[in-house]
Write a structure and sequence with these properties.
Layout: E1 3-6, E2 17-23, E3 26-30, H1 38-47, E4 55-59, H2 65-68, H3 71-77, E5 82-85, H4 90-94, H5 97-107, H6 111-115, E6 126-128, E7 132-133, E8 136-140, E9 149-152, E10 157-159, H7 185-197, E11 202-205, E12 209-211, H8 214-233, H9 238-245, H10 251-260, H11 262-275
Parallel strand pairs: 3-4, 4-5, 5-6, 10-11
Antiparallel strand pairs: 1-2, 2-3, 7-8, 8-9, 9-10, 11-12
Helix pairs in contact: 7-8, 8-9, 8-11, 9-11
The structure holds zinc ion.
Zinc ion (ZN) binds next to helix 2.
Length: 281
Amino acid sequence: MPELLDLHFLGEEQLVGTYLLDLDDGLTLVDCGPATTLPVLEKRLGELDLGVADLRHLLLTHIHFDHAGAAGALVAANPRIKVHVSEQGAPHMIDPERLERSARRLYGDMFDLLWGPVTPVPAENIELVGRRVLGLECFPTPGHAVHHVCYMDAEGTLFAGDSVGVRWPPSDYILPATPPPDVDLEAWHTSLDEIERRVPDTLALPHFGLVEEPEEHLKIFRHRLMLWAEIVRRGVSAREFADEASRDIDSQTARFSELTDLLRHSYLGLKRYWSTAAAPS
Ligand SMILES: [Zn+2]
């Protein structure tokens, strides 16, 4: 079973996690969290009598800062770490300038507090993912981000990144995360089909934890994603979207959304999706 390390993002429990795998190829993290939680990651590893020096691989589901932000700093601390990432994501790890600029537009003054310094990953540390990576199956899951991939191990644990939504335990309310710039609903449905086709036993969410009823989770997630997309398609304001989308959410989840600005980001991402010419009518 993978070890879930809580990175205590923003000082909160169970907001952002990373999965530690003990593979034949060496100790591996699936997503590493942002640079701001690197000291906590070191502490979590220390509790297992491990350190960054023991890591050999980092598997990235996608390159958003809450998943890959610490990658450059990890490699700087331990140049033996290989960073596995999709072909579309790789250039942004090597040269993160454009990614940073786009994220700064979204996060404004909060960027540094949330994500910390941005460190490029040297090209020689990057490995492009294929269908199999370190014994895990890897497949493209665009939707949340165009470069998103998922990994599935032999036991049927699917490392889902942000492709199947987020939740903040103890609540099990599932929120779609649909931030700009490259939400793609059509691609997302195909990705969900691909996930369902593999009948995962467990979903490993970085936000947050293991989901033991994948079928139910995927059904609810897909339904809510469509619901949110339809609200935005009607041309409502951000405020109206937030009111309508959060009508049935519990107080724990409302606070999660507030902390992460999720509803505003999701509104912006869906609005952008519907406004692009490529969007189906
Ligand atoms: Zn995320």
